[in-house]
Amino acid sequence: MYDVAVIGAGPTGSYVAYQTQKAGFKTIVIEEHPSIGEPSFCAGIVGKEVFERLSLAEDSVQNRINFLIMHSPAGKKISLVSKKTHACILDRTSFDRQVAHLAIDEGTSFLMSTRCTDIVTNAGHVKIKLATSPMSETEIKAKVCVLATGAFYGLHKRLGLSVPRDFLDCSQTEVEISEPLNAIELYFGREVAPGSFGWIVPVNSKMARIGLSTKRNSTFYLSNLISKKEVNARIRDKKPILRRRIVPVDTIEKTYLERLLVIGDSAGHVKPVTGGGIFYGLLCAKLASETIINAFNNGGINQRSLRAYETKWKKIIGLELKVGRFVRRFMNTLTDENLDNLISTFKNDSRAKNILEQSHAFDWHKDIILSLLKTPSLSGKIYKKLLWNIFNKDEAYA
Ligand SMILES: Cc1cc2nc3c(=O)[nH]c(=O)nc-3n(C[C@H](O)[C@H](O)[C@H](O)COP(=O)(O)OP(=O)(O)OC[C@H]3O[C@@H](n4cnc5c(N)ncnc54)[C@H](O)[C@@H]3O)c2cc1C
């Protein structure tokens, strides 16, 4: 019997496995794909804190950027140069493999091309049903299981767990570019990405990731963005391959059971404003491994000992997620005129612009949002819009 079985070899699953195996607990990771980190679908943007807080090497960083250009629906532009921090652009395949190798080097077993089809809790252990093909089923036992399946929720329903209530539909492609880009570009507007935004992320001097998140039909909107004159002129690939995936922007109701913890996208540990889940997912993976190690060392695995995980993550990111969800719902209600107005305000008000440019907090949005709300030129517009939404019972607030 294994001590810990982790379902999913994304960064969060591999990170838990690395920590529990390092602490001396026999750990196995189950992954349905044949190769870790593939297929790759992510823009790979993280702040430096992910390496510092999780003690990870920066080997998978392909690019570092401190320059951001925001495009408003009417074509207004604002350029922001961050003075205190920069975005690190990851090669996600190599990052996922880097974290998995830390676990493998400690002695964790990885079972690839193997899908977990069911998890049953029994007295003293969990039984994990596995399929390598529809005709070949087997099972393993573990004292505790960690669900790190990303934005796939089939097992949640079988386990009686809830699923997130809100998602972003995302599409992305990686393309060859005709000239080097030095800024991350964000595109806003109802015609580009309703309720959210599109992005161009320079990977290196030859390649960029172009993607967007929205409520639905993300591939349709991404095709439109790519065909926009100012975007298309910079792309060499004329038939890019689009990859589509959902991202949760809401947490599940309960992230622990008698012998199970839920982490990463599987739990909804994602920044609601941007859809970025690598940092919060890994932060919670660390808390999950600490909780499991603590439970093993102090009386064993049970619902009471595992509950500490949820208490801890709520304390660290709970309020951030609440504020982020509110902003996401607010973003949903913005008209193109509102967006043009807001972007003009950032452009013309040095105090508002400074808040964004001087911020250290790449991954912590709450304080930036609260500071922006104290800026007179912005707060007037935002409060007016909020009141309008409330009195008009906008569906995003229903
Ligand atoms: C287009 C796009 C762009 C993004 N850009 C960013 C970004 O710039 N920055 C950022 O921080 N985040 C970004 N994200 C989000 C980020 O990719 C996720 O938050 C992150 O991958 C979550 O890691 P995870 O380990 O929880 O899940 P995943 O990385 O999704 O890993 C889950 C693993 O579980 C496996 N699995 C699932 N079900 C089973 C099963 N039943 N049996 C066995 N294996 C299973 C899957 O195959 C997968 O390998 C983006 C997402 C998308 C879609």
The termini sit apart by 48 Å
Compute the average pLDDT.
92
Total strands: the figure is: 18
Question: Helix and strand string, N-terminal first?
Answer: EHEEHEEEEHEEEEHEEEEHHEEEHHHHHH
* Secondary structure tally, helices: 12
Descriptive overview:
- With 398 residues, the chain is an alpha/beta fold.
- It has three domains: 2-44 and 91-164 and 251-316, FAD/NAD(P)-binding domain (3-Layer(bba) Sandwich); 167-247, D-Amino Acid Oxidase, Chain A, domain 2, CATH 3.30.9.10; 325-397, no CATH class.
- Helices cover 37% and strands 26% of the residues.
- The protein contains twelve helices and 18 strands.
- Strands 1, 2, 8, 9, 10, 11, 17 and 18 form an eight-stranded mixed sheet that branches. The chain has a seven-stranded mixed sheet with strand order 6-5-13-14-15-12-16, with helices on both faces.
- Strand 1, helix 1 and strand 2 form a beta-alpha-beta unit.
- The longest helix is centred in the C-terminal third of the chain and has 30 residues, at 303-332.
- The site of flavin-adenine dinucleotide has 39 residues, from helix 1, strand 3, strand 9, strand 12 and strand 16.
Spell out the blueprint of helices and strands.
Elements: E1 2-7, H1 11-22, E2 27-30, E3 45-46, H2 49-54, E4 61-65, E5 67-71, E6 77-81, E7 87-90, H3 92-106, E8 109-111, E9 115-122, E10 125-133, E11 136-147, H4 154-159, E12 167-176, E13 184-187, E14 197-202, E15 207-214, H5 218-227, H6 229-232, E16 243-248, E17 256-257, E18 260-262, H7 278-297, H8 303-332, H9 336-348, H10 350-358, H11 366-373, H12 376-391
Parallel strand pairs: 1-2, 1-11, 2-8, 5-13, 11-18
Antiparallel strand pairs: 3-7, 4-7, 5-6, 9-10, 10-11, 12-15, 12-16, 13-14, 14-15, 17-18
Helix pairs in contact: 1-3, 1-7, 7-8, 9-10, 9-12
Bound molecules: flavin-adenine dinucleotide.
Residues 7-13, 30-33, 41-46, 115-116, 148-150, 152, 155, 170, 172, 211, 245, 247, 264-266, 270, 275-279, 281 line the site of flavin-adenine dinucleotide.
